């Protein structure tokens, strides 16, 4: 069996195994074996060297393609998880009740951004699979652009969410102000019920502790006391609510940051794949001359 025949059989086997790609098995085989412009038995420049280089590059392209497909499947699954968690946090009645009573609806800003980011992530993952299978330079450029967009939204959503839920963030002063306002207006039925629901539900007392009632010259309510010991709860509602929301937001922010990491990886892989495809075309053209 001649070198040309061996080349034809090897490339044809690769195409049958991989199934996907932008060229048919016959087309790729003819291109690599220079059967377009050269008569049978006449190899291109470098005899078998050109064939080996093109085949080696083709194998590298296949590996990059499958890595991109694998990372995009993971990315889509994480994006769907972020979408589900954000919807749950947005429409959870317990969270909504607490935020309404504390006038802290800005907590939802990060949720809204991450909902948009999760939708972008799922679309980007689909575009990534299609662009990798088509091996299209234009599709890969679109894919890189959507990856950058997804990275920006994911990073911004995580930052806004943590800024409205974590310790030492803008969330704590807002809770402190709302709690002190409710304590001052505790003689009103609505404020008293709101305080009772928050302090009993979270097991906290005042904004920063029972001392808030003393400093604001208000009586200490029973909701501020432990039902077993009768002592006031040690921690204030600012700390307890921060820990409460921080635990719920940590998973969402962590998943969003993980996807951002995958975005960076996929941008690099897509750039390498685009360069490899261009190089493959150049080598194929040079080999046929």
From TrEMBL:
Instruction: Give yes or no: UniProt keyword Membrane.
Output: yes
One Gene Ontology cellular component term attached to this UniProt record is: plasma membrane
Alphabetical list of InterPro entries matching this protein = Tetraspanin/Peripherin, Tetraspanin_EC2_sf
In the bilayer, the protein is annotated as:
Multi-pass membrane protein
Question: Cellular location of this protein?
Answer: Membrane
- Whether RNA-binding counts among this entry's keywords is no
Where does the protein principally reside?
membrane
User: Where does the chain cross the membrane?
Assistant: 66-91, 111-133, 140-162, 250-273
Which Gene3D superfamilies does the annotation name? Answer: Tetraspanin
Write the record's keywords in alphabetical order, separated by commas.
Membrane, Transmembrane, Transmembrane helix
PANTHER family, per the entry: TETRASPANIN, TETRASPANIN-2A
This protein is called Tetraspanin
- Provenance organism: Zophobas morio
| UniProt lineage | Eukaryota, Metazoa, Ecdysozoa, Arthropoda, Hexapoda
């Amino acid at each position: 069996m001649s070198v040309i025949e061996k080349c034809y059989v090897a490339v044809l086997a690769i195409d049958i195994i991989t199934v996907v790609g932008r060229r048919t098995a016959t087309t790729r085989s003819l291109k690599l074996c220079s059967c377009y412009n050269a008569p049978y038995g006449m190899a291109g420049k470098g005899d078998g060297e050109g064939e080996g280089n093109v085949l080696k590059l083709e194998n590298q392209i296949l590996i990059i393609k499958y890595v991109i497909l694998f990372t995009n499947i993971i990315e889509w699954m994480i994006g769907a998880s972020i979408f589900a968690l954000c919807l749950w946090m947005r429409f959870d009645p317990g969270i909504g009740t607490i935020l309404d009573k504390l006038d802290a609806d800005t907590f939802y800003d990060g949720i809204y951004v991450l909902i948009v980011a999760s939708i972008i992530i799922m679309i980007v993952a689909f575009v990534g699979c299609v662009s990798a299978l088509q091996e299209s330079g234009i599709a890969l450029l679109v894919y890189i652009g959507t990856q950058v967009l997804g990275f920006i939204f994911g990073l911004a959503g995580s930052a806004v969410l943590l800024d409205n839920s974590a310790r030492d963030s803008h969330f704590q002063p807002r809770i402190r102000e709302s709690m002190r306002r409710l304590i001052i207006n505790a003689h009103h039925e609505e404020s008293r019920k709101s305080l009772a629901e928050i302090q009993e539900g979270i097991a906290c007392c005042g904004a920063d502790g029972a001392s808030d009632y003393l400093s604001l010259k208000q009586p200490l309510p029973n909701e501020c006391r432990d039902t077993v010991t009768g002592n006031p709860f040690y921690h204030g509602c600012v700390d307890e609510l921060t820990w409460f929301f921080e635990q719920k937001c940590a998973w969402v922010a962590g998943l969003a940051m993980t996807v951002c990491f995958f975005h960076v990886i996929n941008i690099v892989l897509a750039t390498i794949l685009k360069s490899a495809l261009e190089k493959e075309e150049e080598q194929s053209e040079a080999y046929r001359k």
